[in-house]
Amino acid sequence: MSEDFNDNKTIQAQSSETISGGGGSGLSPDKDYVRPAEISEQDLYHGHSFITKWVFCQDAKVIGVQYFLLATFTGIIGLILSWLMRLQLGFPELAGFMTAEHYYQFVTMHGMIMVVYFLTALFLGGFGNFLIPLMVGARDMVFPYLNMVSFWMFFVAVGVLLASFFVPGGPTGSGWTLYPPQAILEGTPGSGYGIMLMCISLILFVAGFTMGGLNYLITVLQARTRGMTLMRMPLTVWGIFTATVLAMLAFPALLVGALMMSLDNVLGTSFFMPTILKAGEVLEYGGGSPILFQHLFWFFGHPEVYIVALPAFGIISDLISVHARKNIFGYRMMVWAIVGIGALSFFVWAHHMYVSGMNPWFGFFFATTTLIIAVPTAMKVYNWILTLWRGNIRLNTVMLWCLGFIVTFVNGGITGIFLGNVSVDVPLSDTYFVIAHFHMVMGIAPLMVIMGAVYHWFPLVSGRLLDEKLGKWHFWLTFLGAYSIYFPMHYLGFIGVPRRYFEMYDSPYMTSAVGMNEFISIAAFIVGAAQLILMYNIIKTLKVGKPAGHNPWKACSLEWLTPSVPPEHGNWGDKLPIVHRWAYDFSVPGAKEDFITQTTPPSEVANTEVEKT
Amino acid sequence: MSDPKIEGYVLKPGFRGMAEDTGSDQTMFKGVHWGKAMMWIFLLSDTFIFSCFLISYMKGRGSTLIDWPNASEVFGLHVFGVEVPLLLIAIMTFVLITSSGTMALAVKYGYEKNRKMCGWLILATAIGGLTFVGMQAFEWSKLIHEGVRPWENPFGAPQFGSFFFMITGFHGTHVSIGVIFLFIYAYKTFKGHYDEGKRGWFTSMKGDYVEIEILGLYWHFVDLVWVFIFAFFYLW
User: Fold this and answer.
1) pLDDT for the residue A16
2) B113 and B19 share a domain?
């Protein structure tokens, strides 16, 4: 912390020693020296036909875009489902076609699609594939073939998931948490085929993701370019890397839970099924533990929140730094906060289960660990604000999304402190307060990051800049609209409106919520429709957008330094880049321009006060 | 593998060496093949899968109200008029652990570029694995014949059948996948694909003897998991 102000840390590049990555054969007198390559040139398969170039493609950038498009497609389905739910809640008289069963099915599919098939796939599969090789200076992911299979597994998983809309009984309606026993008992919509397809789809997703995840991890660990140390990587890579580690350790629990659930459903085993009386008759099930499923599910489910949040943290750090023209405040602190949040996230899962009948000491333990997570997250928020402080802020669309993210994340984080305490959580549990909390913190906040990242990196993908005016309309409609949706929900929660209710019935406090429900629904329709502005913007830009040229945002990190924009397969032309510094040398005193790219050797920026990285 | 030669880099021992490798550029695990690093991380993930299975098993066994069957009776074998508890499992475990030994030798001969020896040892490993799967199939059919099903079982708690078939089935699938790959690798070794660096069928990447070590890691892991399953199901 105080180190950032310590004058000894800033060194005169003229007299500095170049860090050779440690452990080397001693420092060379040549200050531009970087250790020679230790990895041989990667052997890449170059596609020749349309199919090998664009469909079954082994180029990580194309796979990233494929992931992005498919995740967005499922996300739009999730959005439409949320519209239908809001129509029922706000204007039930217009939603005569919807039964209670439909409503539960839409709740379930909306939740599962948004968390797993939209956000996870988009951040890790989309941004991870596109950005990791470019940002660490690799030619491609280390196992391109496996990477391709990963996407097509995801494709099949989405197909199976959407197929459940068309089977007898429809998709499962047990809520996205899929709690047994009701998930597989008759009376719950989709208790036969629906839940089975959901479990199969999740298992496929986990298998596909594991293939991709191994790629991201090994690319970061073992395939960085010369001079790229772990502590010189952009925070985006750190975020995606740590999130992938979490996913590799958390998804196994989901896989096991889904497998055991499908066996309960198909073979009639009783892993999760206690003895149940139904209409006076004892079912064949007996002796299982429903709480076991909750533990398995939330051992996956809580790290899953950070699988979505950590890449968002990383990306937003880079966007803020670039558009405030200032180095990220406390880079090392940011890295350790990401790692710390990732480690802590495995010790908090049971805070989702305060009301499920645990030993109270369990609640005490998990409340403590949950509140400890506030420390590294708060560090990150302070560091973002301190990065903005006295920065040369460019208030463009990307920056607006960044600011929107910080505000939304703080908001959602503070309500998280409420819910992390057992005694406060118990009355608020299963009310709209919870809905408001997690939509703010892991719905809207990561979405703001995605939007910011789209405006930021679209020039790299397509070579053209998105329209700023449309972008600002898109931002303000989405930002204000999202707050109109979720702010009133906190109030609804306080007055006790329960979540997952098909209608609000006649109790006095619920009739008082009717007006607010209508308002929320209208806001939801507007926010959803506002996303069409982005689509129009993208289509328009692809046709007539302003060419971006090289490095339109004057960023330091490697992805903007490719010989051609958009980068070609192999990324770097003949020679891999050589990295001499971190990705945040903005506004360095004494430098000609306000940024020094990562590949600039020290001899070219003599007499500047660069940070030693 | 203890001393990979990396230009301009001296591997140092101990914690300091580890810290320096971590802080260096390009690679974190110096001289480690990408595929090998990948297999280690995959196995870490797989460890979590088996841990979830075994913890669920402990929880299920702990919370059921009906008595758990007595393992030495259920898994006993009637040979020459004598009841021998755990006989089949002892043989299965012996075969699987032995196949780990032949696999380790195959890796050694692979790095020595002794193509014939390496191929035969991989084949021996594959046959060991196949024997294991065969004996497991025999055990399954014996239990099924006695009336044990995933949803019920005449000896006690129905969860016994569910957990037994699920977990040994999942492990048996791992072994079977390993056996398939062992046969493929044995073929490739005899054909000399690793000597010539012939490109793979799917991945179009060049072959190398390190692939045998990677498969070996997987095979040893499958053995190790079996030791835990053995302890939890047959000795508890």
Assistant:
1) 35
2) no
Could you tell me if B61 lies within 8 Å of chain A, comparing CB atoms?
no
- Would A340 be classed as within a structural domain? yes
Is residue B8's pLDDT more than 70?
no
HEC assignment per residue over B127-157:
HHHHHHHHHHHHHHHHHHHCCCCCCCCCCCC
Per-residue pLDDT at B5 exceeds 70: no
Average pLDDT, chain A: 90
A579 phi, psi to nearest 5 deg: -100, 135
Nearest to B26 among A38, A43, A213 (CB): A38
Task: Verify that B103 and B10 share a domain, yes or no.
Answer: no
Per the CB < 8 Å rule, is B151 touching A217?
no
Do residue B63 and residue A287 have CB atoms under 8 angstroms apart?
A: yes
In this prediction the pTM is 0.93
Judging contacts by C-beta atoms under 8 Å, the chain A residues touching residue B38 are 142-143, 214, 217-218
* Secondary structure of residue A10 in the 3-state scheme: strand
Q: Are A201 and A161 a contacting pair, CB within 8 Å? A: yes
Q: Which residues of A touch B8 (CB under 8 A)?
A: 20, 24-25, 35-36
Q: How many domains does chain B have?
A: 2
Mean pLDDT confidence for A55-63: 93
Chain A residues within an 8 Å CB radius of B9: 23-25, 35, 38
Domain holding A335, by residue range, is: 57-271+288-611
Q: Residue A268: its chain B contacts at CB < 8 A?
A: 150-151
Does the pLDDT value for residue A146 go beyond 50?
yes
Report yes or no on A363 lying in a domain: yes
> What domain range includes position B191?
33-235
Are residues B162 and B209 part of one domain? yes
% chain A with pLDDT above 90: 75
Please give the residue that has the higher pLDDT: either A479 or B203. A479
Count of structural domains within chain A: 1
**Residue A219 is part of a domain; what is its CATH number?**
1.20.210.10
